[in-house]
Amino acid sequence: MYMTLKETAELLSSSEQAVKKLIQERRIRALFDGEQYLINKEQFNTHLKQMEKYKALVEEILNEPIPEDRDIKDED
Fold this sequence. Notes:
Layout: E1 2-3, H1 5-11, H2 16-24, E2 30-32, E3 37-40, H3 45-63
Helix pairs in contact: 1-2
Domain Helix-turn-helix: 2-50
Pfam family, one: HTH_17
Protein name: Helix-turn-helix domain-containing protein
């Protein structure tokens, strides 16, 4: 499935200019049909899976309870 520049920017939570720059740097593969860039969505599967894992890890860390503070000063 091919996406436009705008759709790719939305998918990656980025700006269209940033995506266009990545295309020009050949970090994103794209076809130019004479009018617009067409980007294959399949090339982002690994990236999107890694982002989901990262979000889950961050969520897990944020939801972890804070351990009780031991009062070390009481020891003589």
